[in-house]
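Deliverable D5.2: sample structural annotation.
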Amino acid sequence: MSHVLLPVFALVRRADLAEVIGSALAEKAAGAGARVIAERLGRPVETVRGWLRRFASRAEWIRRFFTVVLVDAGVDPAGPGPARTLFADAVSAVVGAWWSVAARWPQVGKVSPWLVACAVSGGILLAPSWAGLDQVP
């Protein structure tokens, strides 16, 4: 057995950087399809579909988890309003948590929401199993 420390920009079992995957998730939340996203990112469409499916399969848990981060880290937190889909709600919660964390620790605001999401999830945001899901209220 070997143990490897991942840098904050890497997600477990993913070859692409968290920011690349995060941009795909944000585009999907805005209504783009997997083919368009894959073409723009220069990634295989099945790879992008895999990211989107994994995120969608746990969107409610992600939304809750990052809403808790938003509230816990926020100085005067205000959650994001409802989006048009659960997927978009989950993406909004990730970005809202980033805003909340960045308001408290301004240096964090210098990195993308997806690096913060990667760090907060321990790099396993899109891993096959995320232990954090058991701890979501």
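Annotation notes: The chain has six helices and no strands. The chain has a mean pLDDT of 82.
The annotation will be released with the project's public dataset once the embargo ends.
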